[in-house]
Every structure is written in C-alpha cells, then in structure tokens.
Design goal:
The protein is of the alpha/beta class. Helices cover 42% and strands 21% of the residues. It folds into 3 domains: 56 residues; 123 residues, 3-Layer(aba) Sandwich (D-Maltodextrin-Binding Protein, domain 2), CATH 3.40.190.10; 96 residues, D-Maltodextrin-Binding Protein, domain 2. Strands 2-1-3-10-4 form a 5-stranded mixed beta sheet, sandwiched between helices. It starts with a helix and ends in a 10-residue tail after the last helix.
C-alpha cells in the first residue's frame, strides 16, 4: 500500500516538473525577451557591418595622378616623385585630413582617370575653356607665361602668325595644352597636327623625323624635354610664341568627387599662398617658375 502510494507521488512530481518546463517554454514574456535579444544582436551586427563604409565615405582616400613633366613633376627610376608641383600638392595634402596616394602615369591615362573615377585628382592640368566642365577645379599651382613653337636649328621655317603654322606638321602630346589649344584655334589632327600619346617622345621625334616641322612647349619645360631626349635646347630654335595661351596649371578632381572634398582641398591650397609656404617652395626651385595669377 505504501509502495503504491509512493509510486503515485513520484509520478505526480514528474508530471508537475514537466508541466513547469512546458509552462516556462511557452511563457509569452520569455518568448518576447528572446526575440528582443535576437533583434538587438542583429542590429549590433548590422551597425558594425556598416561602420567601415560610413568611415570610408567620411574620410575617403584621395587618388592623385600626374605625369612626368619636369620641373613640375619629376619621375626618376628608384626615386620618389619630386618637383615643384609635387611639393605643392604634398604640402596641401599634409594640411588636409585625407589619406592619399600619388602616382605618375603617361598623360593620357592620368587625364582619363581624373575624369571618370570618384575621388581621383590630377595635376598639373591647364585650365582651358574646353576643359572647364570636365573637372572640379581645386586651385592654381603654377603659371605658364608663354607657349611657343620650336623647330630643329637649321630648318628653314618661318611663322609670322598662327595661320602660317598651318603650312607645317606640328607634333603635340594628346590632350595637353598644345593639342587642345591649337584645336580650339582651327588646327586639325592628321592635317596640321601629329598627335602623340607619349610626351617623352616629343623632342626625339622632332630630331629624328624630318616630316615633323614643329613642336609646342612652354619656355620652362622645353629645357627638360630636350634633356629627356638626350639633346640640348641649343639644338632647337624658337619659331613663334602663341598669343593668348598663357594660363595657370591647376590641381583638379573628377566631377564625381564630393564638393566638400573640393572645398576642403581648395582651402588648404589657398593657405599655402597666405602663410608664405608657396613662395618658400617657389624659392626652393630657384625661381624656375612664375607665381600663378590668382
């Protein structure tokens, strides 16, 4: 009798425990807390997943491209990029809160990248009317006082006005100031202009190819261009100065780049002029360049 009674008590206790477990599992409050915890955990994961992209948007890397164009930009084997304009850009970026990369490519590639890629910027790019809508302009970094036509010394070439130059074949670098400036003045590719994709070949072409009569360069870079070709400026003769083609070299960025970035970089570049840093860098390069017209 007592054994039977004990068995019933044990069964009753087990049933009670099972009932309590089931009751706890089905408790609406606990179920709700469980869902809240899961939702909170999901939100935390989402926050950390989005955090890098938010930071990237607020502090993007600025990709700066240029070309070899001494003394503005000098690209030498196993050496860091140097030059007057390089010093200006480096100081501007040092004053900004943006990380950046700086690379030199052939002009055609750099010119293209700075038009189609977000947060890509370029220097030294001449600010021409035909380029005005292609970039967002940060500010001027140097001034071209004159743009001139050069021939090989000893060649019988006479140019008294720009129309006279159309009688000759002129080698220009694609998309540079000479190419675009002459196209704007009625010169045509294949008829008056021989267009190159590599600026390093410009003087060499004039020296080695009799069918090339003229090249176009400013008085600052012509010395370095001839040295790059293994020649000297004494082998050339100045033929004609193109009027109204004196302008500023600029620091500019792609249209896709945020205006806040442009304004920030513009302020930092302007500060170089205001505190004397620009003139100190200019003096370092022994006054080879002229201060841009602001």
């Amino acid at each position: 009798m007592s054994e039977h009674h004990s068995g019933r008590e044990i069964k009753l206790q087990q049933d009670t425990k099972n009932s309590m477990v089931n009751t706890n599992n089905n408790c609406p409050v606990k179920q709700m807390n469980k869902h809240l915890l899961l939702a909170l955990f999901s939100l935390i994961l989402l926050f950390f997943a989005l955090l890098p992209s938010v930071n990237a948007n607020e502090n993007p890397i600025i990709y700066i491209v240029t070309e070899h164009l001494p003394p503005y930009q000098i690209e030498a084997k196993n050496k860091k990029l140097s030059g007057f304009a390089v010093d200006i850009i480096k100081e501007t970026m040092a004053r900004s809160h943006y990380a950046y990369s700086l690379k030199s490519y052939p002009w055609v590639r750099s010119y293209r990248l700075a038009q189609v890629k977000e947060n890509h910027c370029i220097f030294s790019v001449a600010r021409l009317q035909s380029r005005e809508a292609l970039f967002k302009w940060v500010g001027p970094i140097s001034h071209i006082s004159n743009t001139t036509m050069w021939a090989l010394k000893g060649r019988s070439i006479e140019v008294n006005n720009l129309d006279d130059a159309k009688k000759y074949t002129i080698a220009v670098n694609r998309d540079d100031i000479a190419h675009i400036g002459l196209m704007e003045r009625g010169f045509k590719e294949g008829e008056h202009l021989y267009v190159l994709d590599d600026a390093k070949s410009l003087v060499n072409l004039l020296i080695t190819r009799p069918e090339i009569d003229l090249i176009v360069a400013d008085n600052t870079t012509i010395k370095f261009r001839t040295e790059l070709a293994g020649a000297t400026v004494d082998q050339l003769q100045l033929i004609y100065e193109i009027e109204n083609l004196s302008l500023n070299f600029y620091f500019a960025c792609s249209k896709q780049t945020n205006d806040n970035i442009i304004n920030h970089l513009s302020d930092k570049l302007q500060s170089l002029y205001q505190d004397g840093t620009y003139d100190a860098i200019l003096d370092k390069w022994r006054d080879k360049l002229t201060r841009p017209n602001l």
